[in-house]
Amino acid sequence: MAKYRVIPERSRLWAEARSSLHPIRVETNGLRGDVEADVEDGKVRLGAPFRVEIDAERLRSGNGLVDGELQRRLDTRKFPRVVGAVRAALTAGDGRSRLEGDLSLHGVTKATDADVTVRVVDEKTIEIEGEKTIDMRDYGLTPPKFLMFRVHPDVKVRARLVAEKEA
């Protein structure tokens, strides 16, 4: 299998939580990591294990009040990274794979899985994209409340990894 390095500037993470007033959206780049994959006849087969991470301080909505509370709750000084560690990558066909592994957030590591699409971008580049809804309480995070403003515990997380083959 060939080794591919995740390109932080081209890879993105989105998260959306619902609240009693409006959705709270986070969007950032900066994902890092390495992926092993075989590309044959325009199809990608992912290898495992691999690991992808992002600095927790990058998780910001653009709203100062929300961001201050988010950074405080994530305790980014004590838990500076969010890490996805993939143990198994099962190819399902049609450009789809199931990833099984662990998500580490706020000092808590939980087993999880996610269905992703995998595609060839060009002869040196692949793209992996998937989505998963997590419950922030599973990671020791209490949903914030500000007077009548209440955040729901389910957070939809979506990621797009763009990775380039190492020479």
- Strand order of the biggest β-sheet: 1-4-6-7-8-9-10-12
Number-wise, the strands total 12
Structural class determined from secondary elements = mainly beta
CATH topology type? Lipocalin
Q: What's the total helix number? A: 1
Please tell me the total number of domains.
Answer: 1
CATH superfamily grouping? Lipid/polyisoprenoid-binding, YceI-like
Radius of gyration, taken over Cα atoms and rounded to an integer in Å: 17 Å
Please outline the major beta sheet.
8 strands, antiparallel, barrel
Average pLDDT for all residues: 94
Strand fraction equals over 45%
Helix content: under 10%
CATH architecture: Beta Barrel
What's the end-to-end separation, in Å?
Answer: 13 Å
Taken from the alpha-carbon principal axes, the silhouette is: elongated
**Briefly, what CATH class?**
Mainly Beta
Q: Which ranges are low-confidence, i.e. pLDDT below 50, for 5 or more consecutive residues?
A: none
Order of helices and strands: EEEEEEHEEEEEE
Could you describe the 3D structure shown?
- The protein is mainly beta.
- The chain has a single domain, classed as Lipocalin.
- It contains one helix and twelve strands; from the N terminus they run ββββββαββββββ.
- It starts with a strand and ends with a strand.
